[in-house]
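The record is kept unedited without comment:

——
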Amino acid sequence: MSNIVQSNESFLENKSSCLQFLVNFSMPNWYYEKKDLRNTPSIQDGIDFDTERRYRKEGARFIMQTGTSMGLGHNTVATGVVYFHRFYMFHSFKTFPRYVTACCCLFLAGKVEETPKKCKDIIKTARSLLTDQKFVSFGEDPKEEVMTLERILLQTIKFDLQVEHPYSFLVKYAKCLKGDSTKLQKMVQMAWNFVNDSLSTTVSLQWEPEIIAVALIYLASKLSKFTVLDWVGKQPEHLKWWDMFVQDVTMEILEDICHQVLDLYQQPNNETPPDSPPQLPPSKASPPAKRANISPIATKNSPTIGSTPVKTAPPVPPVVVEMEANPIPKHITTDNTQHAQPHVSGPSSSYNTSVPPPGPPQPPSQSWQPYTHQHTNNYYQSASGGNRNNYYPQQ
């Protein structure tokens, strides 16, 4: 009998070890240090950092334009952009033309977000948006090129298809803020548009969506001169409103995210960026499956941002890409409920910004629990032995 018990215990231990092994090595970590963003396959392939950043921005905005033209929602578009950024952490822009990859990412994102579009329709829309010179990269059979690339994309991102975005956290956090409803609505609309524009940067490769949402609410509150003095669930230990949701996020981290977004609006010496060089068409003798090494490299741990000098925020710039005028939810405050809450338009948005109306405001007497990120680092340990997600309070 004792032998059977020992055998069962040994089996359970081995099973537990196997499961832990699968968890540790199967779940990729999609957050990178800044040094990794300066040592991507494209940079190793001879593309300088600024050019790669421009290629990423062009690809992200192309996904936004294509998604808007096809009536896709903000979650589908954002998921496609995140796939795009992750893909080029493993492959070079010289190997995979960005506009073909962008169509492939949007095609996959549509299926994942349950808003599927036919591949031929995405290609047709892309053809209407791209010049002949840029569309050359799709080759003689654009559909086959996109469909073949989809298999490489899936293997590159290790079939990790579910992506969270800052939008839901933005609305969740805004519902807790108190203040003048008009100013609050304007501030949240501005923050929503900053989230749209942040997709053109690599902040989604550096920080979790909760932290991005906090940073861009912070940025919008500064630019709109809306000071958050009170919020639902405020506790004596909460120095800032975001301490309810994420703890120990330093101002250096928030400012770093804000600066990366604000840099989108700065054109040095008022010069327009140069046109992208023509992309060579794919060779039939070397299809994507043979051009790529489809075994992703090991990911790195997330960054530790040092202190950065505080920059003076410029006035709210016009967003480059035209957005739909649909507002975000109107009723988000928990006070001033006796007054009408008019719609206040923020900066124009780059694609559909409509979201479902939030539920009723939470009563002040509700007992708030600190938010713990669902992907707290049980999966990936930092190189220093520490836990990266020390920003999320323990329950």
